[in-house]
Design a protein that fits this description.
Low-confidence stretches: none
CATH architecture of the largest domain: Beta Barrel
Order of helices and strands: EEEEEEEEHEHEEEEEEEEEE
Structural class: mainly beta
Distance between the termini: 41 Å
Strand content: over 45%
Oligomer: single chain
Number of helices: 2
Number of strands: 19
Shape: globular
CATH class of the largest domain: Mainly Beta
């Protein structure tokens, strides 16, 4: 797998130049957050506030754009950079906004405008909301509006994503051919070559103490360490059929951690589904 890290213009997000001599690159996302965290090491000197893009050459796709927020230097030869994508700022500044019988999709866009953060794609949500949010972060407001829509009957198949430099509400995408690469040449199916595995089942989400065994909804979460690429990320659904670890069903990825060094990309993912006892 081959990536390029670009410096990009902060306003247009257009590429300026490739960053040379990347020693390592790590990034992670989580369904409970609206942002991507990243860190990377290079011999090239950059500035706090610079924007970068991680680009996958093999798939010809942008992975995400983000902003450097911290720099450390432990030797004379390299610098380590830390940062987040745009979603990080959605959890910072608090706003006050009121909605009166507003369509929820319109309310989401209006909240982004009030927070002065760029927005991209939102599905049409005709369910309405009447509510005042006082000194709440945009991230909290958007999540609450989405939960309100789901409670009223909207499909719970969407997630917030800011990887393209804008706030979006995207539908989960199916991918049944998740792969990784060994030595940048040999392709393998990620979930057929699992390096480590952990499984957790829980009923901690139950709301009523008096629920019977037949009524209980069990939350099952599985974590894996495997070889992959950037497509192993939050917002992806896939079907897994692995008899060795007794996993056979359709799952959604709820978090991912990527470590890129040379031609190998090691990925830790957590996947989740709901089952009844």
């Amino acid at each position: 797998m081959s990536y390029i890290v670009y410096k990009i213009d902060s306003k247009t997000l257009k590429r300026k130049a490739a960053i040379e001599k990347i020693l390592s690159f790590n990034w992670q996302d989580d369904i409970n957050n609206v942002f991507v965290y990243f860190d990377f090491e290079t011999k090239e000197e950059l500035m706090c506030g610079d924007w970068i893009e991680l680009f996958n050459q093999d798939n010809n796709e942008s992975v995400f754009v983000g902003r450097i927020t911290k720099i450390t230097q432990s030797n004379e030869e390299s610098f380590k950079y830390f940062g987040y994508d745009l979603g990080f700022y959605s959890g910072k500044e608090e706003i006050t906004i009121q909605f009166r019988n507003a369509k929820i999709s319109t309310a989401m866009i209006d909240a982004c405008k009030k927070a002065q953060l760029p927005y991209g794609s939102f599905p049409q949500i005709d369910f309405t909301v009447t509510k005042i949010y006082r000194k709440e972060t945009l991230q909290k407001i958007l999540k609450d509006l989405y939960r309100t829509a789901v409670d009223k009957g909207f499909e719970d198949e969407f997630y917030f994503d800011c990887k393209n430099g804008k706030i979006n509400l995207l539908q989960y995408k199916e991918n049944y051919d998740l792969r990784g690469y060994i030595a940048n040449l040999y392709s393998i199916k990620s979930f057929e070559y699992i390096k480590a595995f952990a499984k957790t089942s829980s009923i901690e989400d139950m709301k009523n103490y008096n629920e019977t065994i037949n009524e209980l909804k069990t939350t099952e979460e599985n974590s894996f360490s495997l070889i992959g690429d950037n497509q192993l990320q939050t917002g992806t659904t896939t079907t897994i059929d692995n008899n060795k670890i007794n996993i056979k069903d359709k799952y959604k990825i709820i978090s991912s951690k990527h470590s890129i060094k040379g031609a190998i990309e090691n990925v830790q993912v957590s996947i989740k589904k709901f089952i009844k006892q």
